[in-house]
Amino acid sequence: MDRAQRILVDRRCSQIAARQYGIITRRQLLEAGLTTRQAERMVTGSRWRVVLPGTYAQATVSTSLQQRAMAAVQWAGPSAAASFETACALRRFADSVGDPIEVSSLRKLRSEQVVVHHAQPWAPAEIEAADGIPVTSVERTLVDMAGRELAPRLQELVDEALRRSLTTVTRLDSYVRANCGNGRHGPASLRLLLPQYMNGGGFSESILETRLRRLLDDSPLPPPVAQYVVRNGDRFVARVDFAWPGLKVAVEAVGRKHHEGQWDRDMARLNALRECGWIVIFVTWEDLHMHPRETLMSIARVLGVNL
User: What's the predicted TM-score (pTM) here?
Assistant: First the structure.
């Protein structure tokens, strides 16, 4: 290979790596025009480092979640996709962690660096892209996570997926019905959870609201109506997080970040509710996590319920 050919091949390799967060595979090196010996010589130099068998990263590119996920997917084969917790992290779900990297693959593989889940052949719609990296679809990811997570975290994931319009209740329910047998734990957990969304309960607008809903559901208080719309005749007044309409009592989850810069609007909303005879109780992160019992007692007193 003369100097002009080497420059051309090197440019091809750089272009491939640039599209893949600095990652390139041995197969891609050969497809770019290198011989086996040339490829081996190239990746043993200082410009590249081995991240997985037959998978290399440019030494000048910083390690990131995206790079590690891309490397794992490329190593695991053409039908592989980032999955489980890694799929959540790539979609930036709250409280998701990026270590270790998890992928699902049709191949049976083992690695000390990557958690590999052996997958059955899947439909094209079950693989999407996040940050240019193949990942399992939102519906498939939620089913996978349902098999390992306790109900509280699963509800937070479903709420966030619905809140961010990553899926819909109808799509998620249809996927579970079409692709999951009755014997799997994950779909069983989702089947127990989905009716609350289908029956008009609505999804929470924040993690704080999801956790407040859990506190209320697990308490002896009468069940509230979630995402209740308050009207004065035909006029819309407000939508409240949780309500006991017969008593005109509402509970609102108040996160500082969510309400920052909205003081005037919030006060106008609160005044409109009070004009209609509603009592509004606000619950903060501190109330929920540091004083859950006292929070329930406060709500119970307003409702006239003994705990």
Answer: 0.76
Cβ atoms < 10 Å from Cβ of 34 = 22
Q: Return the residue matching tokens 């910083």.
A: 62
Domain boundaries, the chain: 1-60, 140-201, 207-303
Strand partners, 118: 105
Q: Is residue 238 within a helix (H) or strand (E), and if so which, with residue range?
A: strand 235-244
Q: How far apart are CA 111 and CA 101, in angstroms?
A: 11
Q: What is the pLDDT of residue 10?
A: 81
**Peptide bond preceding 152 in cis form (omega within 30 of 0):** no
If we measure between CA atoms, which residue out of 158, 234, 230, 242 comes closest to residue 194? 158
* 103 vs 85: CA distance, rounded Å: 9
Angle between helices 138-146 and 185-196 (to 10 degrees): 110
What is the spatial distance between Cα 160 and Cα 52, in angstroms, rounded to a whole number? 33
Provide φ and ψ at 187, rounded to 5°: -60, -35
In this model, does residue 259 exceed pLDDT 50?
A: no
Fold exhibited by the domain 207-303: Endonuclease; Chain A (3.40.960)
Check: CB of residue 250 under 8 Å from CB of residue 243: yes
Strand partners of residue 58: 48
Amino acid (1-letter code) at residue 85? E
Cβ-based neighbours of 211, under 8 Å, separated by 6 or more: 152, 156, 288
Alpha-carbon Rg of the chain, whole angstroms?
26
pLDDT in tens, 284-306: 989 998 999 999 999 999 999 98
279 backbone dihedrals φ, ψ, rounded to 5°: -105, 130
The two structure tokens encoding residue 297: 């007692």
Give how far the C-alpha of residue 60 lies from the chain's centroid of Cα atoms, to the nearest Å.
30
Q: How far apart are the first and last CA of the chain?
A: 83
β partners of residue 117: 104
Q: Are 70 and 21 spatial neighbours (Cβ–Cβ below 8 Å)?
A: yes
